[in-house]
Amino acid sequence: MNTTLTISMAHERLHTLTVVDVRTPGEYAAGHLPSAHNIPLDELDQALPALREVADRGELLMVCASGARSESACTVLSRNGITAATLEGGTAAWAGAGGELHRPAVATRPRWAMDRQVRLTAGSLVLLGLLLGLLIHPAFQLFSAGIAAGLVYSALSNTCAMAALLGKLPYNRTSRTDLDATLAALRRN
Q1: Contact 144/124 with Cβ under 8 angstroms?
Q2: What is the distance, to the nearest Å, from the Cα of residue 31 to the centroid of all Cα atoms in its chain?
Q3: What is the model's pTM?
């Protein structure tokens, strides 16, 4: 059975939980819960055996930015007989409540959070549609209207197809080496 933990419940039990952050590596690098392991949602299937081992030893907490992806992760885990909880409100709520966030001390260029990437892409596409509508043909403005409709649907459904597409870019993907290291660390805990 999958459950939802409030921020205060998770804070009290953090030392007993194995935390898995299902956001993209860029989002994870921007700040994650202490001791969280990064397994992006689209790579969860590869991690099922390790996650099953972890869940057999103790409680598993799935985390994302707002709670939507971690709920999806819990659904996938539940279908595979793995019990996990999700953090209510995700990392944003954790940070908003004053919870500590860890950031890797890596000397690489910081990555943009997925919501920032979505805003840049959506804004650029809307501007492109408007510009093409002015310069070439007014029908191009329908492209901008389509992007706007997608953003409204995204807000109403709490899903984001654009984020899913952007998450597949090499910039946002975990290298196989990183995933293997994360799975090995999970098995050691």
Answers
A1: no
A2: 12
A3: 0.72
Q: In what order do the strands lie in the sheet with 17-21?
A: 3-5, 85-87, 59-63, 17-21, 37-38
Q: Are 174 and 23 in contact (CB under 8 A)?
A: no
According to DSSP, the residues that pair with 185 across neighbouring strands are none
The one-letter amino acid at 82: I
Element (H, E) at 188: helix 176-188
- What are the two backbone dihedrals, phi and then psi, of residue 19, each rounded to the nearest 5 degrees? -100, 130
Tokens describing residue 79: 């279908």
CA–CA dist 54, 80 (Å, integer): 14
pLDDT for 107: 43
Token pair of 118 as six digits: 């979505």
Which one-letter DSSP state was computed for residue 67?
A: S
Which residues, in sequence order, are bridge partners of residue 85?
3, 61
Which residue's structure tokens are 């055996």? Answer: 49
- The helix/strand/coil state of 92 is helix
Interior angle at CA 132, CA 129 and CA 138, nearest 5: 90
pLDDT tens-digit map of 68-112 = 889 999 999 999 999 999 999 999 899 899 888 887 765 455 667
Q: Is 81 exposed, middle or buried (0-12, 13-18, 19+ CB in 10 A)?
A: exposed
Ramachandran bin of 10, using left for φ above 0, alpha for ψ from -120 to 50, beta for the remaining angles: alpha
